[in-house]
Amino acid sequence: MNCVIIEDEKPAAEKLLSLLALCNQQVYVEIVLGSVKEAISWLQEHPTPELIFMDIELSDGLSFKIFEEINVECPVIFTTAYDEYWQEAFEYNSIDYLLKPIKPEKLEAALNKYQKLKQHFIGYKALANWPVTQPPTGGIAGFKKRFLVKRGTDYISIKAEEVAYFYATHKLVCMVDSSGQKFIMDQSLADIETQVDPAAFYRVNRKYLVNMSAIKRIKAYPKSKLLLEVVPLVTEDIIISQENAAAFKQWMGQ
Asked: Which residues form the HTH LytTR-type domain (predicted)?
């Protein structure tokens, strides 16, 4: 289980790490982030973890600000010394609310809850995506061939192969087609990712889901990361993390 800890107090972070190491479940902590700003930056550039342990009162504000800036797409276990935020916490992906000092049995119970919820939603997702009809001739079962998008007062249909990339920005998800036209989507990036052919589209980081045909160049980047150039061009760097680089290169070479 890949996790991220968002905690600004080093002793508290070290205590949580030691408790996780003693749990019956295998937990891999990718990184410990110490502020709202740092968390937003990291989550925008890296694949979504399976679970986040999140303190509420951080050095630069309440961690709820993270959800206001980006779309957090995984469950969160809040860890805090204050009990007055528990109602608000459950508005932000919370599956549990652990008061400090965290007790080992409470942590174990929270992880068990996560596993049960995970199995439940895996089963639900499989049923929800089960094709009820045969795909059109030449189509790929279970994957969308077209996206219906709005332009002004009209609706138009964009073929999946004509999509260059999808990207998330300011709580919106946009599609850009191969001609550079941009359309606002009414689904999350995570939802769209489940609908497109994984042989053609890759979630390169938290913000971008890219069609292989739109990739113009891949460059080496410091700390074993990759820098992606796509067409149509974007005004920001698309960075693939060190953790995701090997899988991405394997996908490109399939």
From this structure: 147-254
Instruction: Encode pLDDT of 161-184 as tens digits.
Output: 999 999 998 778 999 999 999 999
For residues 77 and 121, membership in a common domain is answered with: yes
Q: What's the pLDDT tens digit per position in 149-161?
A: 988 888 899 999 9
- Pairing verdict, β 28-33 and 2-6: parallel
Q: What is the CATH number of the domain that holds 73?
A: 3.40.50.2300
CB 144 within 8 A of CB 131: no
pTM above 0.90, yes or no: no
- Half-sphere exposure (Cβ direction) of 117: Cα atoms closer than 13 Å: 16
Q: Are 16 and 79 in contact (CB under 8 A)?
A: yes
The candidate with the shortest Cα–Cα distance to 48, out of 246, 244, 248, 235, is 244
Closest CA to 175 of 214, 140, 217, 227: 214
* pLDDT attached to residue 203: 93
Q: Torsions phi, psi of 162, nearest 5? A: -90, -5
CA atoms of 110 and 123, how far apart (whole Å) = 20
Q: Say if residue 42 is exposed, middle or buried (CB neighbours under 10 Å; 0-12, 13-18, 19+).
A: middle
Task: Give the structural domain span for 228.
Answer: 146-252
Residue 135 domain-assigned (yes or no): no
Q: How far apart are the C-alpha atoms of 193 and 209, rounded to whole Å? A: 7
Would you state the structure tokens that stand for residue 79, as one six-digit string?
A: 């860890």
Nearest to 236 by CA among 172, 167, 179, 173: 167
